[in-house]
Each structure stands twice: as C-alpha cells, then as structure tokens.
C-alpha cells in the first residue's frame, strides 16, 4: 500500500481563533492529522503562561497575528473563513458575534464552512454566559463524583477528562462529521461542542450499569472505580505503585500466582471478604520494589502495570517500541494518534510563534491583503523579530 501525504486531512484548511485549553488541543489534533491549521493570534496573546516555543498544542500549525477589534482584522478573518473548510473558536457565547466574525458572518462568506464552537457550558442554558473550568464541568455531570476512594474526596483527574476527552475530542468528531455533510450537500453548519455534554456522554456505560442495578452511585464501591481488590493500585516497598486490573477469572488466577498469594487467600467471589483480600494483596506488594514487581509481571496476562510518571512514560519498553512518544525540536512529546497505514501523521513543525507565518499563509491561501492587515508584534514579544523570551498572558476562563 502506498504511503502518501502528511496525514488523512491533508488539504483540509482550518482557521483557529486563538484561545486556551480544549480549543487549541482540538486544532492540534486536526493539524497532527495533516490539516493546514492557521491560528489567529491576538495582540497581547491568549497564552497559558509558558514560552510559546514550548506550547506543544500549537505544533504543526501556522500563526498570523490579527487584532479582531479593528476593521482590518475582522476583514482578514472573514477572508480566511471564506477559504477555509473549518473554523474553531472557544469564546463565551456571543463574543465572536460582537466581533463580527460569528457564524452568521462567516457562513455568509462561505456557506460550506463548518463553524466549531468550544465552550464549557454550551451555547445556551442558564450557565452559558458564566465562566468556568474543567473541574466544574466534570463536577456537575457526575463524572468527578465517581473518581476517588470511598470515604474520601473526589480525585481531580487533571484536565484530561473534561477539557480534552469531553471537550476537544467531541469537537473534533463534530467538525469532521459536519465536514463530511458539507462536502456531500454543499451546506455548512455550526457545531456546538460543550464540555458538559461530551463528559456526560462519556458516562453512558456507567448509566447503563446504574439502571441495571450493577453500579452503586457512590465512590469506591464498584467494579471499575477501585471498589474491588482486583482492580486498583497498590504501593510497593520503595514507595512506587502498581496498577492491577485482573478482572477476568483466568487473569486473576495468573495474578495471584505471580503475586504469591497462597491457596488460603480470601475468596474474591465473596464481597464480604474483599477487605481481607485487599489487605493480603497490599501486604504482598509491599515486599518488593516497583521495578521488581514490574519484572515479575512482565510478559504475563495478569493485567498488572507500573504507575509511571510523565517523565518515565516515554521510556516504557512498549511505548518506546511503538514510538508513542517522539522527540522534536529538543522536546519529548506524545506522537500523533491514531495511526494510519496509508496516510500517517507526523510532528512536522514546532509550535507556531504568534504572527510568524503571515507571509506564507497569505501566499498559500491567496490572500495578498493579509500581510497588510496583520497586527505588528510588540518589540521583544514572542514572534517579533529578534524575540527570545516569553511574555504570555495569564490563562483566562472558558464559558
């Protein structure tokens, strides 16, 4: 099979109105898959407080610097939208409308455009105009309440569950589905991707178990939330941790054999014996280090794995063999996913610096007026000639 292009979305044009969190990640995913993503940065930045040269969510993109509060900036965005397949924005409801680059304005210029909107609360509802962050979105959907030990507080899963799983990934699915529709019918549309909607959708199976009486609506009492002694984490002799997922009977038998539990171990089929079984498993894990237990369970079907840190993960033998992480520009980072046999994606370019690609975008998108409309970067600011430091603006909120 011939291998072609730089990903299955090669030739797809995307405009990203700069923001923070799930919007940039969604645009990065499209860029990783080969789309030509042009990020419209604003004077002063919309950054997350890190050096733009290390903001990996802006890899594989190009950047132009436009002031949307000026007529020239608004016109330039509409010109970009007229030539784009997809536009992504992550402002509170009504902001892009007030700036003159809302869905009605853009679709008037390009009826085939897919206009993707990333918010926490959605475009309507009583909380739509309110600020928020990941932790609040996953809290009200019931997802946060499922995570953590019984009798303890909910455990905060960074911002992976809401922002990226419930937000970015649903936005990407939505705009790609709408793009298919637009290419079939010639009609674009607006995609309202709310983190609350996506996160709630992720809990579908749990709601099914709840309805069937197979899930208790409390933490640490269920098959997949650490409530069982054969699905959880255990501390090792050196303070490390091992993750155990020996759910099926045949995997559990291999687990107990390699762990060294005797035949007199408490019966896993008896929930009344789970406390004693958990204590017996914990005692065994405390007899060896994480590295020693990793060796014990290597090449087995016991479903046991070491709990690694972010810096350790790229060196895991399996991840290293698959190239799950890659080095680009001196930064170790996750490689594009998923994988395609004929049109593989790749990390092609480092994070786009604000305003650094105006001339190239103007030429490639046939927008000669873009260069004149671009806002100048402040002296010494990221993307400005001779700039070396970073002055990213503090992170804001997502509505």
Secondary-structure map with pairings?
Elements (H helix, E strand, L loop, with lengths): L12 E5 L4 H11 L3 E6 L19 E5 L5 H13 L2 E4 L5 H5 L3 H7 L4 E6 L14 H7 L19 H26 L3 E6 H8 L1 H8 L19 E5 L5 E5 L3 H11 L14 H12 L4 H8 L6 E3 L10 H6 L2 E4 L2 E4 L23 H7 L5 H4 L26
Parallel strand pairs: 1-2, 1-4, 2-3, 4-5, 5-6
Antiparallel strand pairs: 7-8, 8-9, 10-11
Describe the structure concisely for a colleague.
Helix 5 crosses helix 6 (160-185).
Number of helix segments? 14
Strand order of the largest sheet: 3-2-1-4-5-6
Distance between the termini: 45 Å
The major sheet is characterized as:
6 strands, parallel
Secondary-structure element order, N to C: EHEEHEHHEHHEHHEEHHHEHEEHH
> What general outline do the C-alpha atoms trace?
elongated
SS content category: alpha/beta
Radius of gyration, whole Å: 24 Å
**Runs with pLDDT <50, length 5+?**
379-397
Share of helical residues: 25-40%
Overall pLDDT confidence: 92
Tell me what portion of residues adopts beta-strand conformation. Answer: 5-15%
Number of strands: 11
Describe the fold and architecture.
This protein is of the alpha/beta class and 399 residues long. The chain contains 14 helices and eleven strands. The strands form three sheets. Strands 3-2-1-4-5-6 form a six-stranded parallel beta sheet, sandwiched between helices. It has a three-stranded antiparallel beta sheet with strand order 7-8-9, with helices on one face. It has a two-stranded antiparallel sheet with strand order 10-11. Strand 7 and strand 8 form a beta hairpin.
